[in-house]
Amino acid sequence: MWRDAGTIGTMHNHDIENRHHDAARRMVAGTIADPFFAEALFDALPDVVFFVKDERGRYVVVNQTLVQRCGQRHKSALLGRSADELFRAPFGQTFLAQDQAVLAGGHDIEDQLELHLYPSRDPGWCLTRKTALRDAAGRIVGLTGISRDLAMADKKNPAYRKVAAAVNLIQEAYGEPLPLAALARTAHMSVAQIERYFLRIFHLTPRQMIIKTRVEAASRLLAGDASVAEIAQACGYGDHSAFTRQFKATTGFTPTQFRQL
């Protein structure tokens, strides 16, 4: 089949990059004594949880941040145990279900917005990633992941004021439909621009910011007497079941369980 010179050049460059990448992996695999050398680097990041798990979802490598957030002093207290053995229900079951889905060959988890409760009972927003680990034959033999604390907004970005106007709209009207086009108009930006600047400034997509705002509002309302159905409606969810699914995916609790806390 005929291809123009530009296409051939692009394909050639891509093949070269792949060969260099494969060669680099073989070199690293053959020369580095400890494949988990990154553990010490992640120990130095207090805002990042890092872990490697085996094919049954048991911890084999953890960093010090995870140890502290499990209320432990030493890594040995976590090694060989699964999430449901370390985290209180239903957090542990939720994390284990994530692990099992990844280990079963499902999709990797990419920047899942989650609200965690630490041993101090303080809540913290995180973005979680989990990816399967495979052997040379392609079989899944474990998984690795990180959970990053949500960073502070970059208020020095020149576009901060424009994007902040869209955030204010979300905070004031979280109970209403909030299409991306409406947020873009509020910020006087195109849809592509507001998506790009949301990530740069708030480290969240507009959709994640809406979810975060609605879950925070629902958490406050659950401390009162309103029914779960009324709270779902007030937070922009016309479907009670959709609200429950989103709330549990984000916090690890159903709204009723969260209320019982």
TrEMBL record:
It is an enzyme of class 2 (transferase). This is Bifunctional transcriptional activator/DNA repair enzyme AdaA. Its EC number is 2.1.1.-. Keywords: DNA-binding, Methyltransferase, Transcription, Transcription regulation, Transferase. CDD domains: PAS. GO terms for molecular function: DNA-binding transcription factor activity; methyltransferase activity; sequence-specific DNA binding. The lineage of its organism: Bacteria, Pseudomonadati, Pseudomonadota, Betaproteobacteria, Burkholderiales. InterPro entries: AraC_XylS_family_regulators, Homeodomain-like_sf, HTH_AraC, HTH_AraC-typ_CS, PAS, PAS-like_dom_sf, PAS_4, Tscrpt_reg_AraC-type_HTH. Residues 164-261 form the HTH araC/xylS-type domain.
